[in-house]
Amino acid sequence: MAPIDRHECEWVREHLDAFLDGADSDLAAGDSERVARHLASCAECRAESAFAQRVRAGLRGMEMTAAPAAVIERAEREIGSTRGRVVALRPRGGMRRWAPAIAAAAVLVVVATWSERSRRAQAERVAVEQAAREAAVAFAYLNKYAQRTGDIVEADVIGRRFVAPVEKAMEKTGVAETKPSPDES
Fold first, then answer.
1. Hey, CA dihedral for 85, 87, 88, 91, is it positive or negative?
2. What gap in Å lies between CA 12 and CA 34, rounded to an integer?
3. With pLDDT > 70 as the criterion, what percentage of the chain qualifies?
4. What is the mean pLDDT of the chain?
5. DSSP 3-state assignment of 48?
6. Angle 43-45-50 (CA atoms, 0-180°, nearest 5)?
C-alpha cells in the first residue's frame, strides 16, 4: 500500500466541491481525473467525499416554506400604496438564493473539522500513554536484568537515569509496577 500524500489529500479536498458539481463546475478535465484517481486510492478522502455528498443531499432535501397568506397580503397592500416610491431591484438569484444552504454547509464543515481534530488529539494522547507504558515495561525489565548483572551495568546509574523517571511516568499514566513472572526469575 502506497503511503498517503498529505499534500495531494489537501489539494483534492480543496477541489472536492467542484468535482462533486460535475459538469456544472469550473474544474478542468485533467483535475477532475486527478481527483477521481485519488479518491479511488485514499479511504480518508473517499470518506470526506461521501460526507460532502450526504450534506448536499440533505440540503437538497430541505423543505422550502412559504410565507403565511396574511404576510403576503399585507406586503402586497404596502407595495400597492407605495408603488411610486419603490425603486425596482434586480431579480434575486445567484448566491443570495443559496446563502442559507451555504451557511448550513459551513456550520457542518466546522463541526466536522472540530470533531475530527478532537478525535485525532484523543488518539495522540492514547498513543503517548501507550508508548509511556511500553517504555516503562521495557525499563523495568532492563532494571531487573541490570540488577542480576551488576558487574556489567552499574545499578545506581540505571536507577537514576532510567528507573526513577520511568516510575514517575508510570505513576502519571496509572501503570502498575511490572513484576517478573515465576518462570522469568
1. negative
2. 8
3. 62
4. 75
5. helix
6. 90
Give CA–CA dist 36/54, Å, rounded. Answer: 18
Band of the pLDDT at 49, cuts 50, 70, 90?
A: very high
The residues, any chain, with a CB within 8 Å of residue 49's CB and separated by 6 or more, are: 16, 19, 20, 39
- The rounded distance, in Å, linking the Cα atoms of 9 and 39 is 9
Copy the grid coordinates of residue 105: 454547509
The rounded distance, in Å, linking the Cα atoms of 29 and 46 is 19
Q: Residue with C-alpha cell 473517499?
A: 46
Report the SS3 class of residue 67.
Answer: coil
Yes or no: say if 153 and 146 are a contact pair by the CB < 8 Å rule.
yes
How far apart, in whole angstroms, are the C-alpha atoms of residue 48 and residue 50? 5
| 8 vs 125, more confident | 8
Q: Where are the alpha helices (DSSP H) in the chain?
A: 6-21, 29-41, 43-60, 69-81, 95-148, 155-158, 164-173
Residue 2, C-alpha cell as written in the block: 502506497
pLDDT of residue 184: 46
Question: How many Cα atoms are found within 13 Å in the side-chain-facing hemisphere of 56?
Answer: 12
Find the mean pLDDT for residues 132-152. 63
